[in-house]
Specification:
about 230 residues, single chain, six-stranded mixed β-sheet, alpha/beta, 6 helices, seven-stranded mixed β-sheet, 13 strands, Purple Acid Phosphatase, chain A, domain 2
């Protein structure tokens, strides 16, 4: 089984995981994908406790990066192949799904593109609570288009942290993005959507749950089987 959820922020928003695993029996052969801001790596002081928590979960953890990750530590992890794409090995059963990669997991083709710009960037500190690497680059976009080209621009699922520009005008997101600028990564994702065929797109970042339409779902507290909508 493959499930997907929104931001967990290290140990801050894990109540949903506790509740979910009390009623859903899984094994390490199953996967939970976190749509960014896992916060599993953050500070030397807290990393051991965070890693122990996620390794102790009954399934394997996959995550795209968000804007709240320690990118110095994340990018220092060993890079390896996994299901047709590149990953960072964060733990024995914890993998970072890298930007612009396409994976074939349990017969499902999944395109991943992490990263976003912190709206409170100016109030954060370099190397402690913000990293320039949180912002997707033109190189990341080029990697994405090359990966999608290799699979004929056709995937089953897309998992990102932020979302394309068009989706930002949906009432569900406008309520939490009012007055914010549109960042370049949303323009990148608009271009990617125009190029690719897909069944469903999941993203986090906005701390709400719901469906933008019948093919786009934003997640925070909900944990869904891959392929499901929030309102099902």
């Amino acid at each position: 089984m493959i499930y997907v959820t929104g931001d967990t922020h290290g140990l801050q928003n894990t109540e949903k995981l506790d509740a979910f695993f009390r009623t859903t029996p899984l094994t390490k052969a199953d996967y939970l994908i976190i749509a960014g801001d896992s916060g599993i790596l953050w500070s030397e002081k807290s990393n051991a406790r965070r890693l122990a928590f996620y390794e102790g979960l009954p399934c394997s953890i996959l995550f795209v990066d968000g804007n709240h990750e320690n990118f110095d530590q994340l990018n220092a992890c060993r890079e390896e192949d996994f299901c047709g794409g590149r990953v960072h090995r964060v733990g024995k059963s914890i993998l970072h799904l890298m930007r612009g990669q396409v994976y074939e997991i349990e017969g499902k083709r999944i395109f991943c593109f992490g990263g976003a710009t912190s709206v409170d960037w100016d109030s954060r500190t370099d190397g402690i609570s913000r990293w320039l690497a949180e912002r997707p680059t033109v190189q990341d976009y080029d990697t994405a288009m090359q990966s999608l080209s290799r699979v004929g621009f056709s995937v089953d699922y897309i998992i990102t942290h932020t979302i394309d520009e068009r989706a930002l005008y949906h009432p569900l997101l406008r309520a939490v993005t009012a007055g914010r600028r549109v960042y370049p990564e949303s323009n990148m994702l608009t271009n990617i959507e125009d190029a690719v065929c897909y069944r469903h797109w999941y993203f986090g970042h906005y701390h709400v749950d719901g469906d933008i339409n019948d093919r786009k779902t934003v997640l925070f507290n909900r944990i869904l089987p891959l392929g499901a909508c929030a309102e099902e």
